[in-house]
User: Which sequence fits this backbone?
């Protein structure tokens, strides 16, 4: 009786797990309303129009990576490449991750000249803010760094998507990220740059119970799913911005 | 405002309110935060708190200085700074205990970066030294260190305020302007400066002290003028509209670019002029529509808030502790909206209960400040954090 129960339970779990895998896309989907392009990606559109190629560089810190030998393939930069190739089959998409631990926005911005020269990206996905908040870099100087870096990247021929911090409820009392998230939102608004609201998306998942972000674990399972969603949703954002580009080239207003 | 005869209950009322707001604001992701004033204008509870602290410190220690001399008054101020320091260290220890627990529960490959924020636990020795030097201040533990520094510098300031109030105020404004323009700040550990820069925040403290030593009487005709009232109301409305564009960014396009460039960032660390002006505008409206002899101040409905304001150091520390606890419950047990509301309400009830208990104890011990309104003892009523 008992064995049968366990057996049935296992089958049930198996089915659930299978459905879970099949629904990875729709799992992300519960937060899809939080992904929208507020500005066109003119440089990306140009490159696709002229050369059918798109080069993306991800610049960020540890939260743009996953640990371990297979981590790189599971982290969102690699997943973005996979998703974009699917969504834009006629374009040669290349995504490179230059994420390195423990870098403030200013540290990263210092290297932008070299990145522009060496990689010649059409789009930089800039994940920042977490380490600045941890180091207690002033939010004001953080904002100043972003502003001058945005101009530099634009002048160097690259569009930008900001990615803000992760939603991390346990460390909220230790890392005060809100002023840095605000700074990112502001610079984005003033300079017509898109933001991938990682924080809002993860909060939404956590509230709905889409992903369990709270349990302590060594396993990469949830982390990999979360990053897969980031990759897919970033691709959605880019495609959305390209569509916007065709409709209304100079209207960075929000729907 | 405060006549020489007694305590202006409005100070206690608004300090009590500020304590409640600070408690609510310090629970991250708390839905009840939407009620607090920082969401509707530039300034927030911090300005109210520091201003009233300056006001009461000048009021209480100014009288000591008059009756007992500069040395005794200075000794009392420094003793107060010592008490606040001890309170800060005590709260710090409780905070570290919460973090020690968190490090065990947060382990997840998704959060490798965020876990780095707890690295200081790996070097407790250095962290401890920097904390005792007030250089290492965990998030949300910035207010008491500011207050300690302000108190340490207060004896000569108070002396000057009593001799030449205008000169003292000018000196304070000059320090504010210079510090802001030259980015002067005290150093923090591991890097950066203080979240509440004492060199700029001193302005609202000294301004409070200036008001507490009779400045209010001098400002009387100004505050009562119809023009000033209109201007204050208009500024509060303006500030409200700007803040709304933070929550509804689609309306931000209606703010001209040059104006945004001029206005942003509105810096909390250096107590931006726009924040200071917003506080002044709120104060002008409040003083106008809430006279010191308003009977409501004696009603039992406002009594809880006033009680909290009268024991501000104790209630402030309690509030910080309760907000840690609230954060702990919302992150470990339940994040539901019902739980957030419950925690907020319970926290405020505990603050009221403890304030009442302290009042009762002081009455029993014959320390005053209870049922019989003796002149407030300086160690109790002194401008508190």
Assistant:
């Amino acid at each position: 009786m008992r064995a049968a129960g366990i057996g049935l339970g296992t089958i049930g779990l198996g089915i659930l797990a299978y459905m879970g895998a099949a629904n990875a896309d729709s799992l992300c989907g519960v937060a899809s309303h939080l992904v929208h392009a507020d500005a066109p990606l003119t440089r990306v559109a140009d490159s696709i129009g002229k050369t059918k190629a798109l080069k993306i560089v991800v610049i960020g810190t540890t939260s743009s990576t996953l640990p371990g030998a297979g981590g790189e393939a599971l982290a969102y930069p690699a997943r973005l490449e996979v998703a974009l190739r699917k969504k834009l089959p006629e374009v040669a998409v290349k995504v490179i991750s230059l994420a390195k631990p423990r870098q403030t926005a200013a540290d990263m911005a210092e290297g932008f000249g070299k990145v522009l020269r060496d990689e010649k990206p059409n789009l930089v996905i800039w994940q920042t803010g977490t380490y600045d908040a941890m180091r207690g870099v002033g939010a004001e100087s953080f904002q100043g760094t972003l502003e001058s870096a945005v101009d530099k990247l634009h002048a160097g021929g690259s569009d930008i998507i900001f990615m803000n911090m992760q939603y991390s409820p346990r460390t909220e009392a230790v890392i005060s990220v809100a002023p840095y998230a605000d700074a990112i939102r502001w610079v984005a608004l003033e300079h017509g740059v898109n933001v991938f609201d990682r924080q809002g998306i993860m909060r939404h998942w956590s509230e709905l119970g889409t992903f369990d972000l709270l349990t302590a674990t060594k396993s990469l399972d949830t982390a990999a799913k979360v990053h897969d969603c980031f990759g897919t949703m970033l691709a959605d954002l880019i495609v959305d911005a390209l569509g916007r580009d065709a409709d209304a080239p100079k209207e960075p207003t929000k729907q | 405002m405060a006549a020489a005869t007694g305590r202006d209950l409005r100070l206690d009322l608004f300090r009590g309110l500020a304590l409640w707001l600070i408690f609510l604001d310090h629970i991250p992701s708390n839905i009840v935060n939407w009620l607090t004033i920082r969401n509707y204008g530039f300034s927030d509870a911090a300005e109210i708190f520091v201003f009233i602290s300056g006001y009461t410190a000048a009021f209480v220690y100014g009288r000591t200085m008059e009756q007992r001399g500069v040395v005794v008054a200075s000794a009392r101020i420094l003793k107060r700074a010592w008490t606040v320091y001890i309170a800060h260290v005590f709260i710090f220890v409780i905070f570290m205990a919460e973090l020690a627990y968190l490090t065990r529960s947060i382990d997840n490959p998704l959060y490798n970066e965020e876990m780095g924020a707890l690295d200081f636990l790996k070097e407790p020795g250095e962290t401890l030294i920097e904390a005792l030097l007030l250089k290492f201040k965990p998030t949300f533990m910035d207010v008491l260190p500011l207050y300690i520094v302000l108190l340490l510098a207060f004896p000569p300031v108070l002396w000057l305020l009593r001799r030449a109030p205008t000169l003292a105020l000018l000196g304070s404004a000059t320090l504010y302007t210079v510090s802001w323009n030259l980015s002067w700040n005290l150093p923090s550990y591991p890097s950066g400066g203080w979240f509440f820069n004492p060199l700029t925040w001193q302005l609202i403290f000294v301004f409070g002290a200036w008001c507490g030593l009779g400045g209010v009487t001098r400002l009387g005709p100004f505050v009562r003028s119809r023009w000033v009232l209109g201007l204050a109301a208009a500024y509060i409305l303006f500030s409200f509209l700007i803040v709304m564009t933070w929550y509804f960014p689609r309306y931000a396009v209606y703010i001209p670019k040059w104006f945004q460039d001029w206005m942003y960032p509105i810096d909390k660390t250096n107590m931006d002029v726009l924040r200071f002006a917003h506080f002044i505008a709120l104060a002008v409206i409040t003083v106008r529509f809430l006279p010191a002899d308003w009977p409501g101040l004696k009603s039992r409905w406002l009594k809880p808030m006033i009680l909290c304001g009268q024991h501000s150091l104790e209630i402030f520390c309690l509030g910080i502790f309760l907000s840690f606890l609230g954060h702990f419950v919302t992150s470990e047990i339940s994040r539901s909206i019902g739980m957030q509301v419950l925690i907020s309400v319970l926290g405020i009830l505990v603050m009221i209960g403890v304030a009442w208990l302290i009042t009762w104890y002081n009455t029993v011990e014959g320390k005053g400040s209870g049922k019989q309104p003796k002149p407030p003892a300086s160690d109790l009523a002194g401008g508190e954090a």
Observations:
- The radius of gyration of chain A is 19 Å.
- Chain A touches chain B through 51 residues (CB under 8 Å).
